[in-house]
Backbone:
């Protein structure tokens, strides 16, 4: 008999140590890719996660065998929703967990969706492009990061923003950027 395939079920995640564990294990891939001054271990401290939660980031996750394996945060910033801190544990990547979480968030979101990631994270950029996002030009990226994110200047300089569908055009039409 073959192993029973568990259907990924998305659930709200509030256990900060488990969220940090997923983020910190998956973020190891950034070492040597992102600017040295932006890399730290752990990548996401408990205090930093507490600040993100206090700032309105809501985490959704997928568990297997009672272990949290993937997380994706979503932050309502008024005229936009932001994908924040999207990570799948090593060894569980390319198993559709990221796509499942992303689609879940798409169904929940009422506003245009943006995502920021490191410019050097080509795998992340490809993931979002394969799921209906497009890379924005540097001028729009800088303006959006300044308007909707709270990240250090050096991180913003080393980041890109992707928009889902017509998100940027909608924001322009509504006078938000």
Residues:
């Amino acid at each position: 008999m073959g192993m029973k395939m568990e259907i990924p079920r998305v659930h709200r995640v509030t256990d900060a140590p488990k969220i940090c564990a997923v983020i910190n294990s998956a973020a190891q891939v950034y070492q040597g890719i992102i600017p040295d001054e932006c890399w730290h271990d752990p990548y996401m401290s408990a205090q930093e996660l507490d600040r993100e939660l206090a700032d309105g980031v809501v985490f959704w996750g997928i568990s297997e065998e009672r272990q949290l394996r993937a997380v994706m945060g979503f932050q309502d910033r008024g005229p936009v929703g932001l994908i924040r801190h999207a990570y799948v544990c090593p060894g569980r990547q390319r198993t559709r967990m990221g796509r499942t979480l992303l689609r879940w968030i798409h169904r929940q979101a009422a506003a245009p969706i943006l995502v920021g990631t490191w410019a050097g994270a080509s795998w992340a950029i490809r993931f979002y492009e394969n799921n209906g996002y497009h890379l924005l030009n540097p001028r729009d990226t800088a303006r959006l990061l300044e308007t909707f994110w709270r990240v250090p200047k050096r991180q913003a300089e080393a980041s890109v923003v992707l928009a889902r569908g017509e998100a940027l055009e909608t924001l322009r039409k509504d006078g938000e950027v």
About this structure: The chain has one domain: 10-173.
